[in-house]
Amino acid sequence: MANIRLAPVLRSYAGGSKQVSAQGSTLAEVLNNLYQNHPSLKEQIQPEQDLSRFVNVYINDQDVRYLQGLQTAVEANDTITLLPAMAGGR
Predict the structure, then answer these.
(1) What distance in Å separates the CA atoms of residue 90 and residue 85, rounded to the nearest whole number?
(2) In this predicted model, what pLDDT tens digit does every residue of 23-76 receive, in sequence order?
(3) Over 80: is that where the pLDDT of 19 sits?
(4) Distance between CA 31 and CA 20 in Å, rounded?
(5) Residue 23 · residue 72 · CB < 8 Å
(6) What highest taxon heads this organism's lineage (predicted)?
(7) pLDDT over 60 at 80, yes or no
(8) Separation of alpha carbons 13 and 87, rounded Å
(9) Which CATH number applies to 2-84: 3.10.20.30, 3.40.47.10, 1.10.645.10, 3.40.630.180?
(10) Which of 3, 31, 40, 68 has its Cα between 20 and 30 A from that of 10?
């Protein structure tokens, strides 16, 4: 199972958990398994077919946008980090 680290702003959608686990051989499969256990995360991470452009997704600290996106291979001991983009300023 892959370990999924959730940014503080996403934890309330996963019962307050800082980290959860999910199964799958690709990022798409892992996320689908994650949504089965925590359905409210889907709207935050993947409201459409593709990933939200406001959420950065990393597998072992590599941005999946520079890999194969949702088709990026995931190994059992990989760490996936979900980080919503933050905006600020004037």
Answers:
(1) 17
(2) 999 999 999 999 999 999 999 999 888 998 899 999 999 999 999 999 999 999
(3) yes
(4) 11
(5) no
(6) Bacteria
(7) yes
(8) 21
(9) 3.10.20.30
(10) 68
Which residues, in sequence order, are bridge partners of residue 56? 83
Q: Which residues contact 24 (CB under 8 A, 6 or more apart)?
A: 2, 30, 31, 32, 33, 74
Residue 88: is it exposed, middle or buried by C-beta count within 10 angstroms (0-12/13-18/19+)?
exposed
Global pTM? 0.91
Name the residue ranges covered by the structural domains of the chain. Answer: 2-84
Q: What is the DSSP string of the chain?
A: -EEEEE-GGGGGGGTT-SEEEE--SBHHHHHHHHHHH-THHHHHH-SSSSPPTTEEEEETTEEGGGTTGGG-B--TT-EEEEEE------
Strand partners, 79: 3
